[in-house]
Amino acid sequence: MNRGLQLLGKAFACTVQAKGRYLICPYTLQPATMPEKLTNKGNKKLVMADGADHISALPDELLQYLLSFLPSREAVQTCVLSQRWRHQWKYVPALRINDVDSFYSVQQLNKFVHHLLMHRKRTPLYVCELDSFRNGEVAEWYQYAVSCEVEMLQVDTAHSADYCRLPEMAITSNHLTTLEFSGVQLGHISLDFSSCPKLEVLVMRGCKILVQKILSQSVKSLSITQCNFELNTRTHISAPSLISLELADILGWTPALERLPSLSTAFVRLDDRCEDYCLHSYYGDCGDQVSCGKHCTRFYDIHDDDCVLLGGLSNVTNLELITSPKVFIVRKDLLMRPTFSKLKTLLLNVSDADASFGPLVYILRSSPVLEKLTLQLYEEPKAKIETDGSCNLEEQLMASKKLKVVEIKYSKIVVLCRVLQILNTCGVPRKKISIERTELWSFGSHFSFEQT
């Protein structure tokens, strides 16, 4: 009984933290006043002022919603509290297999989930979190969740040494709004979410992506981090409703962004794990198959008049763009002369490896409404790239007339002086420039002041 009370206290604490002093039932949308307090400074035992069991007196729907904050294993354990609680767990609108470390083996985990799904009533799921070890039956659980009209689905197999392979079939759901993959292999012709008209949030973290296209008409927030793009061609991303994009720390070829007319905020970080790099040529076309190999021999893989990244980012309002000096994809895109007519806030890293500071010069030219510019300056003594001289400071350069502030963070005075020269040539008054010296770093040690 004490264990049951502790579980209820834990669920109640989660609910109070999320909702304040009230619990909102997702079915009635009516607030229900909860017990006075949790005592003993965080002790999960629930204490009532009059000693009565007020929680058990709540309607079934509120009890089930309360249990939805617990891992499913703990929710099941409440069945021993009393006859009233015996079957409540079967109707909980959440499936949370997120405590895999509490199982002795993958066999024990699989057995528990098998019986859980067998005895649970097939009621709609608001949220489903699926974690698993290697050889876990997560693909079967995934299909079960979709069949239960799940709204928020998270699949995490990062505990496994290998990528989990999900069924190679398109998802069809009129209820799914949020989908998160972690440590999953996604390998089909495309990730087509056209049959998920309510899907708005898509997250892929540490996944192996073997698809030619990621397609969604409805997704508004897309995050792809630490994923491995292993195809011998670029994965294309088509998401015309996208508002927020995070693309960071990928392995393999940089995905190509198709037109993103609604994009407002983007964070892009490409480090040395990206295969779009060249050790010799400014635009990645040295053709040296000995030292650069395929990175240069198939450097673009799209139509010559298309951009890989910057075309899709051209409508963005707030942009963080951080790239290793070896990665040429941004410099190559600049040859297509994209414009950034809506860009107001920009964070850009600048390295002395690029003697012409080409991306900085070009973006200043092409951002007529830019208001705030943050520059991260660093040196890469072993990554000098020969430039083509296309960014000539003798040309007439004018920064945005709306530019209000330039923040510069630097470690080496040589790089700072060069950047100040560029800003002066662009007509940026010294009074608008704020300079801060930081500890010495290289690209690999510190990427961004906004995200790390």
TrEMBL record:
* Parts forming coiled coils: none
Superkingdom, natural source: Eukaryota
| Highest classification ranks of the organism | Eukaryota, Viridiplantae, Streptophyta, Embryophyta, Tracheophyta
User: What is the protein named?
Assistant: F-box domain-containing protein
Pfam families, from UniProt?
F-box (PF00646)
User: Where does the F-box domain start and stop, copy by copy?
Assistant: 52-86
Q: Which PROSITE patterns match?
A: FBOX
